[in-house]
Specification:
The protein is of the alpha+beta class. It contains 19 helices and 25 strands.
């Protein structure tokens, strides 16, 4: 049964005394300025260009919170299949509504669809999404182009059994080779030691090294930002967050460009098809054949599948970092797609990795040495390219403060969106810097709710929580039985225990710093097979409204900062309806949470680690959680 709702934390005398030396709105304006300038960065270890964010002002009109997580899955009658164009921002609160919204957005797309996720499942609902909705829409509109971006290791899991994400997408690529782009991201850490890691680490384990973890679902000029993957769990009984932003072409164009940049970094791959004669099906790039592929002179970095029996060839792409020129086009869908297509199909030279019974490098040692040597310099040049491109985006979309004495009109923005990007493997830490800035502003907020499905805060986030003594903080994470890894097979069955251990480490620090009165850890448990995957941050004012929130893919943990590719948005709004909707979103989560009140709460069979595992987790494994 659902656990009792936790009692509110009463502010300490020190908290109320230091609550608001200046009006809250003044602090929010200061926060917004800090997100678009580098002057407030306290750490000199990061380049200034990583400390800023582009800004997208929005007039939200009306905002509706759709669905109800507390009542589990809403009935179909409660979920409209059509979306109102007057609702600029909608918060979805149930997995089933997330699925129906994706179907509705696909059915209304005419020019572009981008699905960027960790992976694509292969169950019934995923087949309906791809082989019915996407397939039918591409048949209806010849101008529609589809870009599918996933993590290479996760999307090719069970590839030998023909049960991977690529196997589900194969008919779509066969039917529309000129209008479907499939690209897979591999962390450069794998490529640095490709001759060793690629052949030594088994499936699932290799994903601990780092993955593409962004969740961006783009349909024409509408974007869904979430932490949810495209899998049946996330469509049925895994609680997450989903924000739909409609009819914002500049924001959609930005995310299209960002996906293209990330997926063309050094260790990405392109999926192409060979016809019966061994030639690559024309896809707007050109044609080549199998012998050309094996010689390492293919026109693009890609994975090639052959017919009728699927064989997969993994081609390493020489990184291209010619992004230093700002985009001069006027924007819009067609020009953005043209730029996108160019980035994904630029000529490259590379070596070949073949996946049949095992993964192993093929080719002469000269090719292997070229790949290995290039990879050592890859992160440096990629970071420079990312910083240059990111600074162009900041200049292209600056934050323009609105003076308080300016007359408000129907077109005056009431919401600002600041996207972030994190690629720790390339030493690009924009999301970490921005998150740190928000945590540094907690002292001016009445309450803060911070959620991470996989609890393993970094040391600098932990330090901010421990040292900020002027606000009440609720930290929400999943109980072991609500963890998606609970009851899994193999070594992954211990993962919920490890996260519980890291939870206990923070709890003991709270006791040590005497912060138990104003910082509480809450565990989510709803029963009936529900798991918890929500992540983000809510700043709550004294009127129980949320003027500032973070939404995205990051879990605020070690691997989110150092290993995975992550993106979030900082949403700052003065719209009362949106503020109330954001408050209700976190309140519904808290209805199924219970506070951890003593060390005894961390005891139990589903939390036990043992001395050796405890030692390894605190010293080594926490870097991969």
């Amino acid at each position: 049964p659902p656990l009792a709702r936790p009692q509110p934390i009463h502010p300490s005398p020190m908290s109320s005394a230091a609550a608001s030396p200046r009006p809250l709105q003044s602090h929010i304006r200061s926060l917004m300025m800090s997100l678009t300038s580098s002057s407030s960065n306290k750490s000199h270890s990061f380049p200034l260009r990583q400390c800023q964010c582009p800004c997208f002002p929005i007039r939200t009109n009306t905002t509706v919170h759709q669905g109800n997580a507390a009542s589990h899955v809403p009935q179909p009658s409660q979920q409209t299949s059509s979306l109102s164009e007057t609702q600029k921002i909608s918060l979805l609160a149930s997995p089933s509504h997330f699925f129906t919204t994706l179907l509705s957005l696909i059915s209304n797309s005419h020019s572009r669809i981008i699905l960027c996720s960790l992976y694509l499942g292969i169950s019934v609902k995923e087949q309906k999404l791809v082989r019915e909705a996407l397939f039918q829409q591409m048949q209806k509109f010849e101008s529609l182009k589809v870009y599918l971006y996933f993590d290479k290791n996760r999307a090719t899991r069970d590839l030998k059994k023909q049960k991977s994400s690529l196997d589900l997408l194969r008919p779509l690529l066969e039917t529309f080779p000129e209008r479907v782009v499939i690209a897979l991201y591999e962390t450069p850490v794998m490529r640095h030691q490709s001759m060793f890691l690629a052949s030594m680490l088994p499936e699932r384990v290799n994903e601990a090294i780092g993955v593409q973890h962004m969740k961006i679902y783009l349909f024409d000029d509408s974007v869904v930002l979430s932490g949810a993957n495209l899998s049946d769990w996330y469509f049925e009984n895994r609680l997450d967050r989903w924000m739909l932003i409609q009819n914002e072409s500049q924001l959609a164009d930005f995310y299209e460009r960002m996906c293209a940049r990330v997926m063309t970094l050094g260790s990405s791959f392109r999926v192409l098809l060979l016809d019966d004669n061994g030639n690559v099906k024309r896809d707007g790039v050109g044609e080549s054949n199998a012998s050309t592929a094996e010689s390492g002179s293919t026109p693009s970095l890609h994975i090639v599948t052959t017919k009728p029996s699927p064989k997969w060839y993994f081609h390493y792409m020489q990184p291209q970092y010619d992004w230093d020129k700002p985009v001069t086009s006027s924007g819009g869908t067609s020009s953005s797609i043209s730029e996108h297509q160019h980035l994904l199909t630029s000529p490259v030279q590379g070596g070949v990795l073949e996946l049949n019974s095992e993964i192993k490098p093929v080719g002469n040692w000269t090719t292997k040495w070229r790949i290995l040597k290039a990879s050592f310099f890859q992160a440096h040049y990629a970071r420079q390219a990312l910083e240059t491109w990111w600074s162009h985006e900041v200049e292209r979309h600056p934050y323009t403060p609105i003076a308080e004495d300016v007359q408000q009109t129907d077109n005056t923005p009431d919401t600002h969106i600041f996207p972030t990007l994190q690629l720790g493997s390339f030493n690009f830490h924009n999301d970490r810097i921005v998150t740190q800035k928000l945590l540094d502003h907690m002292s001016h907020i009445s309450r803060v709710t911070l959620s991470s499905a996989y609890f393993n805060f970094t040391s600098f986030y932990t330090r901010s929580i421990l040292e900020t003594k002027c606000c009440d903080v609720r930290i929400v994470t999943s109980a072991p039985k609500s963890n998606g890894f609970y009851g899994s097979k193999g070594s992954s069955r211990f993962i919920p225990n490890l996260y519980s251990l890291m939870e206990r480490v923070l709890f003991e620090k709270l006791e040590q710093y005497k912060r138990m009165s104003d910082v509480q850890i809450h565990e989510f448990y709803m029963g009936n097979g529900w798991t918890y995957h929500a992540k983000g941050l809510w700043f709550i004012d004294e009127e129980d409204r949320v003027p500032v929130s973070m939404v995205g893919s990051s879990n605020f943990g070690q691997r989110s900062v150092d290993r995975d590719v992550e993106t979030q948005i900082v949403l700052v709004t003065s719209n009362p309806q949106l503020q109330e909707a954001l408050y209700q979103e976190q309140d519904r989560i808290l209805q199924h949470c219970t506070p951890m009140q003593s060390v005894e709460d961390f005891k139990g069979d589903d939390r036990e680690c043992g001395p050796l595992l405890t030692f390894l987790t605190k010293r080594v494994l926490k870097k991969f959680l």
